[in-house]
């Protein structure tokens, strides 16, 4: 019994020693301090604006200019909320709902088509494949703002202006999503697995929806997040496409409030804070699935 215990202890010691990197690979004390300093600065850089908006949403116009920005003054939050609801005529939460609907719809549609296109380009040989890849790469280099006016003319000719489709359809097109789908499909989808499925009699649609989509889960979550955030933050496209107050996203609605003469800036800050809550919830909700998908993809790879 004692020999077994000793042998087990030796194996654990060897394993622990193997897990410790040699001294040459360990960062120096100066490098560790520099790394921690960079992380602290980056944390402050990303958290400070959110903290400022939270504090500014509780202030009046006078307090915003007379008090320290990162400290509370007179509690004006209820009055700011009443001002926000009054100015928007009760449409603020409808604008938030519109943004969620546009972003989720564009994210789901865009993610599905992006991974389908990426998988096809990565795993199939067809005429014009090189040209297709070149067009996708050109789409990555083309600023989205340049396409807004041509898109407006096209959708106006189709009679789709001032409809939800005028925002959802252009937002669902993601050259970056297709490129990411190509990169993931090349490494995460083994060709041998596809050939085995075809030998077993599975059709291409069944292979994609039952095998490929599971393997591309990390790419799908990433693409969905990119499309969702881009659609949520988009301003120029809704400004051109939508004129009805009931169809506005929250970004366009808050812009109208800021363009008003002498707006209640605290109310605008409160609207911006409430409008970003769905994004925060989305990131915290999908972070777990994103990490688990990446881990599963690494094990399968």
Description:
The protein is mainly α and 301 residues long. The chain has two domains: 18-83, no CATH class; 88-259, MetI-like (MetI-like fold, Orthogonal Bundle), CATH 1.10.3720. The protein contains 15 helices and no strands. The chain has helices spanning 2-19, 29-56, 61-66, 77-87, 92-123, 129-141, 148-158, 165-172, 175-188, 191-199, 204-215, 217-233, 236-241, 250-258, 265-300. The longest helix has 36 residues, at 265-300. The radius of gyration is 26 Å and the shape is globular.
CATH superfamily of the largest domain: MetI-like
Shape: globular
Secondary-structure element string: HHHHHHHHHHHHHHH
Q: What is the CATH architecture annotation of the largest domain?
A: Orthogonal Bundle
Mean pLDDT score, rounded? 83
Number of E-state strands: 0
Structurally, the number of domains stands at 2
Decide which structural class fits the backbone. Answer: mainly alpha
Give the DSSP E fraction (strand runs of 2 or more residues).
under 5%
Helix proportion range: over 70%
Q: Major sheet, described briefly?
A: none
Q: Rg from C-alpha positions?
A: 26 Å
End-to-end distance, in Å? 41 Å
CATH class of the largest domain: Mainly Alpha
Number of helices: 15
Query: Might you state the CATH topology name of the largest domain?
Result: MetI-like fold
**Low-pLDDT segments:** 293-301
